Structures are given as C-alpha cells and as structure tokens.
User: Fold these one by one.
Assistant:
Number 1:
Amino acid sequence: MARLTLDHLAVAAETLDAGSAHIADTLGVELPVQGEHPLMGTHNRLTGMGPDLYFEMIAINPAAPSPEFPRWFNLDAFSGPPRLTNWILRTDDIEGLLNDLPDGFGTPIALTRGDLAWRMAVPKTGVLPWGGWAPAIIQWDCDLHPTQTLPDSGLRLSRLTIHHPDAVEMAECLSPLMPRDTAQFMPNETKKIVAILDGPDGQKRLE
C-alpha cells in the first residue's frame, strides 16, 4: 500500500498579487480562497483541482510578524518571478514515515485554520532535502480536506516531473512509497518542477 499520496502543489511568489496574476496568465484561473499561517508569517490563495488535489500560491505575509525560525518552503530565500517550487505529499503516519525517510525532511509542526487541522514536516533550516526539491510531508488530523470546500478550477493534473541532477536517487527513495506515476524524475542539471495540467481551455504547463 502506498504510504504517500500527492496532496497539493505550491507556487511561491514575492506577493500574493504577483502570484495571482501569474496564475491567471499561465493557467487562466483565479484563486478565490485566501488564508493565513500566523506561525510561519505566510499567507496563501487556493483553488481545487478535482476531488483529491488542490493548488496553493504562497508568499510571505508582510503584515505578519516574522517567525523566530526559518519559514517553510525556504520562502525567506525566495526572490524573482512566481514559480512552482514545491510538491506536497500526504501520509496517515507522519511520524513513522519520517523515521523511514532520510534525514532532513523536518519535524512535524501542528497547525490549525478554521475546521482544518494538520501537521507539516518542516526542516529547521527551512530547506528540504536535495536542495529544497524534495516533497514536503503533510498529515491531515481532521475529517475535512481542503478539496471538500474549495471551488473546482476545472484543472486536472496530467503529469508531474521533477528535474534534478539527483533524480535517480530521489526516485529510488520516493517512488516505492507513492502510487505509480505520481511523479516522474528526470535527471537534469537545471532544477525545476513541471506540472502539465488539463483544463477547459486545453493543456497548460506550469513550472
């Protein structure tokens, strides 16, 4: 049985408005739901991509106090145009899974927002393994999942590819834990995440 399932994709941006404009231009969709993460000093906008997957655009919240530790997704070091920076996998046993994964995936931090409760593994440095290109690990500690309340954008993930010099090593570590074809790992000196999405207006590419 798979121990990890793709939960959501995250685009980082310097500001929510810049990220939203990029998503509207690239994918042709709006991000209608906004939330905040006071513990991390970040905020986000969201939309659904079917029954099991959603999309997040995240940025540092300039109105929130800065945390005394590095923010998740290495957002403290983020600069430049909005881009797809993270893929997030969910599990039903975050503690057990982290014990079996290589060092560096982080320590579970408990968060809540409204009816949602979850734990996210966050590295002390804010940087995930393989230079930040490893998936973040999440466990939902509630009966509700964001996809149950988010509007459906009409987008559906067709293919997710992780381009990285250590792609073979990443695949050997992660592929046995995920359903087949969750992600493809492509050896490449240029590090990037590429999502191919099908939607009402045809196929879109996000990276």
Number 2:
Amino acid sequence: MLKSIKKNFFCWLEEKLPYEQYIMIRSRYYWLSTPSEWHEKYRFPYFLSKKKNAGKKYCIFRYAEPGSSLFSSGLGHIFSYEWAVSKGYIPIVDIEYAYDFQKKCLGKNNEWEYCFEQSMNIKEVIRQDWVLVEQVGRNGTWLEETCLDINGSRDDAMIHVMATNWKDYYKKVNHYIKKIWIFKESFLNEYRQECGCRIKQGDVVIGLFLREEFSVDVAKERTNKTARELYKKHPLTIGIQEIFELVKKYMEDWGCNKLFISTEIQDSLDLFLGEFGDKVIYVSRKRVRSSLYRNHDQYWDMDAEGKRDYDKKLNEMLNKKDKTIAYAKEVYGLSLCDYLIAPKSSGTAAALALNGGKYRDICILPDFNNIERY
C-alpha cells in the first residue's frame, strides 16, 4: 500500500514540476532513504553538479546494472539520446563496473569510450558545472516520438531482433545510430588489419554469432536452481552441433566461401576451424573452454558481494578492456558480412542495426523461451 502511494506521488510530482526540479526532489529522497545501498543509488537519476549560469548542460547515461553491457546500453541510448537533445542536454554514455562505482572511481573504466567517440571524455564531463546523471535502458528515460517512429509504440524503447520486415526496420534504426555509434579510427584500423584484410573482393561471407551460454547444451547440464531460474528469463537457442550442421548447409545454399565467427568459447572455434580451415575469420582474443558455463554452481551460491569480487577477478584475468574491444570488433565484423546466422541477443540486434538492412539474407536461430527482452 505504502509503495503504491509513493509511486503515485512521484508520478503526480513529475507531471506538476519542471523536469529538473522533479529530479532534485526525487534524487534527494532516494539518496536519503537508501544511505548504504550504493548500487541502488547508481540506478536513480540525480545531479552530479548543478551550478547556476552553467554554459552547457551534460547528461550522463548509465546502464541499470553496472557491468558488461556495451550494446545493451548502446541500443537503449538510441532513444535516450534523442530525449537528451530535445531537452538541450549534451548526452554522454558511461558504462562502468560495479566495483569502480563502489570505490568512487568514476571515469576510470568507461566501456563505451574503449570503442566509440564522444563529444567529451567522461573524466572531463564529471568535472563540468552542470551534469545530470540518468539511466539508459529498459527503466531509463527516452523520447516517446523515437519509440513511435521505430516501433510504433510510445513506450517501446528497445531495438528488437526482427526476422520479418527486417530490411526496412534496420534501415530506419541505422538512421538513428549512425550519428551516435561513431567508432574510433584506432578501433577501425585494428579491425581492418586483423580481419578486414582477409576478405577479398568477390568473397561471400556468412557472419555467425554464437552465444553458447544460452543454448540447450548448457541448459540441460545446469543443475543450480538459482541459475536455472535466472536463465529462463533469457533466450534459449539450439545447441552447437545443430548450429554447425546449419552453417554447413547455408555455406552451400548461399554460395559462401568465408565464415566470420563470433564466440568466446574456444571449443566452438576449434569445431569450425576443423571443418572450414582458413575459410574461418575470427578476432584474436582470450577465449574460455565450454566447461566454464556448464554449471558454475559456486558462483550462483555466492552473495551479491561475492559475485562482484568474482566478476572483478575474472575481468582482470581475461583483461576486461581487451575483451570488450574484441567483442565490439566481432559485432562490427558481423555487420559487414553478406549473410547472418545469429540468436536473439543485444549483440545480434546491434549487428543488424549497424548493417542497416543490407544483408542479402538472415537466419535468426529459434528461442525456446520466447523472450521479448534480452
């Protein structure tokens, strides 16, 4: 009852007050009511600074869950960017890690800036006179007109993985992202030297996006109850062997002579290298063995603090910055292919958006959980 009253009160307040005054009141309430819950504070809009007569107004957009969310954030930012511009704010994306935020190390690790250009570096932005922090993503702020234009609904702030009418849909999406997903020239040069040089004029390339963690192979061996329930909220696709057979069929049907593959599992890469040899193009990165995803009971039985410590150690072991850049290279590479085979995921939506409807054909792998969000 109290929760409902509070929600209705803030909805009423938002309607009655100018937006910036509303945020001042709302943020003060949440910061005072959750003094020790730093991870909750991360999610709520607030002013980092708000000086009178500030020359420029900056709006930092953070993802709801601090962590690895490069393209989930980027896709949501399509809608929040337009909202910020409509308010006269300069939009900035800031994707940082939970343990950095907890230690008040803002601006130390911004995933977005590993790959994309921004009007100002996040370390400089947080020192400006007027800085609003907002949330990007499913519970964030967006422009209703952009939602309506892309998805035909004022409250659908998501880029979907479409299997029908996808050419027109992603052509429209690409119109929005090309002005905010601006890859750094150093990033593009690294990709060209590593992968682009292996694709010659006349080559026909299939892009294969693998996310084995969300496959029936791993799901049937996952015994931890917490993990099983969590993964029911994510798309569930076919196993690696079935995908392997599908790729062999499409390589012939589509007349392809090259295969660009995105995977963080070394076992999968080895499987395709064994079949297609030097026809396979891939980004060099640290990859793990499939056993890492098979059960992982120890992780799911940890408390929140234990999970953060584990994630930090894993990120350091794999070199999180290198991993993020490698993943971005893979999604970028997928977007340049002639054909695409991929499951429902934010990475797939990003590749489709970057491609802008220019694929000759696509194959979206089945999702047995029928999940709308991912």
Number 3:
Amino acid sequence: MTKLMTKLRIAVLFALPVIGFVLLWEIFSRSGAIDSKLFPPPTVVAMAFAELIKSGEIFRDTGYSVGRAIIGFAIGAGLGVFVGTLTGAVKVVRNAFLPLIQVLRPIPSISLVPLAIVWFGLGEVSKIFLVTWSVFFPVWLNTFLGVTRVDPVYVWAASSLGASKRASLLKVILPASLPLIMGGMRVGVALAYMNLVAAEMAGAYVGLGFRLEYGHMVFRIDQMLVAIVMIGILGALSDRGFTGVVETLLPWSQTKKR
C-alpha cells in the first residue's frame, strides 16, 4: 500500500507541472496577446495530432526517426567505447590519435549536414552518419576519462594475482569505468535526437524533422508543434529507459536519493 501511494504521489507530482503548462499555453494562445495562427493552442495541436494519426503519417515519421536514432546511437556509442578504451589504455594509440580526435571533437555535426548530403545523398546513410558523429565524441571522452582515472591499486592488485593485461582491462578497468561510460552514453541519447532532427530537416522525405520542415513550408504551425512535442516525448522516454537500464545494471553507481 505504501509503495502504491508513493507511485501515485510521484505520478501526481509529475503530472501537475505538465497540466499547468498546457493550461497556461491554452489560455495565452486564446488571450489575443499573440496571433493564434502563429502559436496555436494545445487543443488545435491535438486535432492536428489526431489528423496525422488518422493518415498514419505520425507513425511513419516516428518509426523512421527512432530507427535512425537507434542505429546511429549504437554505432557511435560502440565506436566511442572502443576508441576510448584504446586511447585510454594504450599509450602509443593515445599519443597517435588524441591530437586528431581533439581537433575533430569541436566540429558540430550540424555543420557537416551539407557534406553528408553530398557524400551520402538524401538516403539513410547521411542521417545515420550525423547521429553517429554526434554520439561518438561524448562517449569517447567519458570512456577515455574513465579508463585513465581508474585507481592504479586495482590494476596492481589484479596483476599481483596473475591477471594478464587483457584480463585486467576487461575485468577491472572497464567495469570500474562503466559509470562514466554510461554518463557519456546518456548525453549521447539526447544528442542523437538533436542532430537527427537537424539532418532530417535539411534533407529527408520522412521523419519528425521532415514533418517539422514540411509544416513550415505549408504554414502548418500545428503540425510543426506536433513534431516538436513528439521529439521531446521520445527524448524523455529514451532518457528514462536508458537510466532505468543503468540503475539495473550498475546499482553501485547510483547515489542515494533523498
């Protein structure tokens, strides 16, 4: 009973700000302070959402965007962990590749949109490339920091017990680095959606970014807001799902909640 009450209290605390925000939005849009065609109220946006559901377009757009985000995130995170581990654990690799990575890291993936379209066209590869690029660097950085900051005592202890360098890396260094690695991946989840939408707006025929750009071209502000709300919901759900996995797999990395 206590757990049920706790869950209900959390649900109410979560719902109240959302409901309040929607009500204020509705009141402001209908107050006449701004043209409602430029800033339609939630009721109008809900009707546009129903329209897109009826046509099936919202499901197609969401499916394509989620698929692109998942594939790009998986590739970027995998490469980030691999390269971060190598540059953190192997001094020769670090000295060879660290300067290059540090030069590439500040380049925003949005600036690569025109090049990606020229290189890969308007198909799926260009979108996945841009998502991969945006996810790789935060995951690489956190993996690199995690590997290089592992307490040497742990490595010495493993070596004294006869562990090889490979065993120490896989069974000591990487597990100790997981909290930081997961932190980098969580940042990557948000960046995946941010950069995917930019790529879809620049050149796509389906996806939430395309829906946003299409709404702009035909002056359907309500559809634009539907796309924006869907992006926010997907990002929040992805983040919540990722943190849930982290809390399950790495309970030792979680601080006590007040």
